[in-house]
UniProtKB/TrEMBL annotation:
Pfam families documented for this protein: UPF0060 (PF02694)
TM segment ranges: 6-27, 34-52, 64-82
Species assigned in the record: Salinisphaera hydrothermalis (strain C41B8)
Protein's name according to its UniProt entry: Uncharacterized protein
Record InterPro entries: EmrE-like, UPF0060
GO cellular component: plasma membrane
Keywords: Cell membrane, Membrane, Transmembrane, Transmembrane helix
SUPFAM superfamilies on file: Multidrug resistance efflux transporter EmrE
Stored PANTHER family: UPF0060 MEMBRANE PROTEIN YNFA
Length: 88
């Protein structure tokens, strides 16, 4: 098991940053869940790029499939409302 570096007090700014992020999501004119879905898809993609470029661990087939599924799901959630018919 890897020992976490630093003091547990470092969790306080991390928690505050996360709380600020969640609050900022509520200010977006779109539904916060859609914005968070977009963030999630990008986060997973960048995490695997980090793994590959910084940690020199190339992604395997399941990594690639997982990212494609995340990005596809993100696109369906974020772009879905654009294709709804507007009833007047």
């Amino acid at each position: 098991m890897v020992e976490p570096p630093g003091s547990p007090w470092l969790l306080l700014p991390a928690a505050a940053s996360l709380a600020l992020f969640v609050w900022l999501l509520t200010l977006h004119p779109q539904a916060a869940g859609r914005v968070y879905a977009a963030y999630g898809g990008i986060y997973v993609s960048v995490a695997l790029l980090w793994l590959w470029w910084i940690e020199s661990t190339p992604p395997n087939a399941s990594d690639i499939v997982g990212v494609l599924l995340c990005l596809t799901g993100m696109a369906i959630i974020v772009l879905g409302p654009l294709h709804r018919e507007v009833s007047t």
